[in-house]
Design brief:
The chain is mainly beta. It has no helices and 7 strands.
């Protein structure tokens, strides 16, 4: 079986972190997480990228910006 092009989505789970605002600044340093679900289980948030096309030679780099949440 050969290579099959597909569309994928990246999900990142984070505890005690907030996701930064997507698509702010340079594409090499901004966050590509566009959808956040809060408290999916046990205080963990999940962030999802947009669907990306995975084809031979395509750029599939996904960046996620996270900042620490201070709990007092």
């Amino acid at each position: 079986m050969g290579w099959v092009a597909d569309s994928q989505q990246v999900q990142i789970e984070a505890r005690y972190r907030d996701f930064t605002v997507p698509d702010v600044g340079d594409d090499a340093t901004d966050s590509d997480i566009i959808k956040v679900q809060r408290d999916i289980y046990g205080g963990i948030d999940a962030g999802n990228s947009a669907m990306i096309d995975v084809t031979a030679g395509s750029d599939t780099t996904i960046d996620a910006g996270l900042v620490e949440v201070l709990i007092s």
